[in-house]
Design goal:
Low-confidence stretches: 179-196, 198-203
Shape: globular
Number of helices: 9
Structural class: mainly alpha
Strand content: under 5%
Radius of gyration: 23 Å
Order of helices and strands: HHHHHHHHH
Length: 217
């Protein structure tokens, strides 16, 4: 693979690993095993039955854990220490033919990209879990799985296009990922739900003119 293809694979696999590491590894292994693509030598081990079986089994476990509110938050918290390092390892292995400094650079880029996508996912889930209905959580989870699989395939088939797509996704993630605002929203929403009805009752019982309101004496 040339440097452009290696960069595309590192970015695509890095972003998708931050969303769903096991879906990324399983997709790469299955594509290699069935001859759809030819991975770099350092990643060809992903098509081994033991690696594939482990990745698919862990993906199934994550598939169900990711659909349960608050369980998905715990799962994401644990995988903060798994997804970025694994993405860096995938990029390091993919750039096996490159000089050592390029391999370490690819690993750092992929780890940073994975941390960004993982943080965006975790923040979005924390906000969605405040909703009483489970459907929004399920839709978001399915969408993340599909994006992870599609982006992994794109990284191997169209690395240049993947590089452009990932830069766009990173820009969107950085713009949307505001941890302090998401945390404030999660903490204040239950208080707001309890406080607003009480304020409405008090205003009916003790009407007080507000600034900007016209009242006749």
């Amino acid at each position: 693979m040339n440097p452009i293809e290696t960069l595309g694979l590192a970015l695509g696999a890095g972003f998708s690993s931050g969303l769903n590491l096991y879906a990324t590894v399983a997709t790469l292994g299955l594509l290699q095993r069935f001859g759809v693509i030819h991975l770099p030598p350092g990643l060809q081990r992903l098509s081994h039955p033991w690696v594939l079986g482990t990745a698919v089994g862990l993906y199934l476990l994550e598939f169900f854990a990711d659909k349960i509110p608050f369980v998905d938050t715990i799962w994401d918290a644990i995988h903060t220490f798994i997804r970025p390092p694994a993405a860096a390892l995938l990029a390091f292995a993919a750039a096996g033919a490159a000089p050592p400094e390029w391999r370490w650079g690819a690993a750092l880029i992929a780890g940073g990209v994975a941390l960004t996508s993982h943080g965006t996912k975790a923040s979005a889930r924390a906000a969605v879990n405040t909703s009483p209905e489970p459907f929004s959580n399920w839709v978001l989870s399915f969408g993340e799985d599909l994006l992870a699989v599609w982006l992994t395939w794109m990284a191997t088939a169209h690395p240049v296009a993947t590089t452009i797509i990932v830069f766009g996704l990173l820009a969107l993630s950085i713009d949307c990922w505001k941890p302090e605002q998401a945390l404030l929203h999660v903490r204040c929403q239950p208080i707001q739900k309890r406080l607003v009805p009480k304020l409405a009752v008090l205003r009916l019982q003790y009407p007080v003119p507000f600034v900007g309101e016209n009242h006749q004496l």
